[in-house]
Design brief:
nine-stranded antiparallel β-sheet, single chain, 277 residues, DNA binding, 23% strand, DNA-binding transcription factor activity, MerR-type_HTH_dom, elongated, alpha+beta, DNA-binding, transcription regulation
Length: 277
């Protein structure tokens, strides 16, 4: 038993759990040099420490256990260069994806910080110039209830994640103006995710730069009618012709709060002065 380490000693030296070493043994990745036939205790030789180091480093680099097991069957400088160069490409792709996620999270945080100012002053309605935007869309099925809207939104997220599309971590809906004018404020026709311009998408919708009348609704979605009434009154009182359906952008929603009273939705119409003005 000289020059052998117990599983506890090896676990301590390598900062790895005994359960992990047992698992590596079971899958044939790293087996002990000796197993006591009387009690089943595992022991490892000093020569095996380098092999375990290699496994742990390969795992840290990002290789799967299956890939590591295959790699370690017979590796040379040439085979190592090939597989490590390949992994560099994988890591670069992961870095780019993380950078994209970072920018999306920053965008969401800035929106939430700006919108939080409206928590106490939600009655504000403003006219502002918006920039061109692109939306990944999904039609909402009849009868256009919250459940159908939720399903359409989830289909958008599923498509975005499946195809690694550059969406922002935000959702929204389009509500036809005709429905709003008849008090059907929550009957959205389309769910969407804001997205960077992406070629080849059939369900990509472009909304142009232009002048919009905007307000923020604070509270649960079913109470959004009061904010639409406020927005419609604003347009009527200032002689603004509404040119579009409504676009609703979720600023603070179920992703960022459990309290529906803290929900914040940005509502906007494209507008222009009426011809008489």
């Amino acid at each position: 038993m000289d020059h052998l380490f117990s599983i506890g000693e090896l676990s301590k030296y390598q900062n790895i759990s005994k359960q992990t070493l047992i698992f590596y043994d079971k899958i044939g990745l790293f087996r002990p040099a000796y197993v006591d036939p009387n009690n089943g205790y595992r022991y490892y030789s000093s020569a095996q420490i380098d092999r375990l180091d290699t496994i742990l480093i390969m795992k840290k680099i990002g290789f799967s256990l299956k890939e590591i097991k295959e790699y370690m069957k017979n590796y040379t400088i040439d085979s190592s260069l090939t597989i490590l160069r390949k992994q560099l490409t994988v890591i670069e792709q992961q870095i780019q994806e993380l950078r994209m996620i970072q920018s999306r999270l920053l965008h969401r945080c800035v929106q939430m910080e700006n919108a939080r100012n409206y928590m106490e002053t939600e009655t504000a309605v403003v006219t502002e110039t918006v920039q061109e935007q692109y939306l990944l869309t999904q039609k909402v099925d009849e009868p256009y209830r919250m459940s159908e809207i939720s399903i359409a939104t989830k289909k958008c997220f599923a498509e975005a994640f499946r195809n690694h599309l550059p969406v922002f971590f935000q959702s929204g809906v389009i509500v036809p103006l005709q429905r709003i004018r008849t008090g059907r404020y929550t009957e959205a026709s389309t769910a969407f995710l804001p997205i960077e311009k992406t070629e080849g998408l059939k369900n990509l919708c472009r909304i142009p730069a232009g002048t919009c009348a905007c307000t923020y609704h604070v509270g649960d979605y079913l109470s959004i009618g009061r904010s639409y009434d406020r927005l419609l009154d604003y347009c009527d009182s200032r002689g603004l012709e509404i040119l579009s359906d409504s676009y609703e952008f979720c600023i603070n929603d179920y992703l960022t709060t459990k309290d529906e009273n803290e929900y914040i939705t940005k509502i906007l119409f494209y507008v222009r002065p009426t011809q008489d003005d």
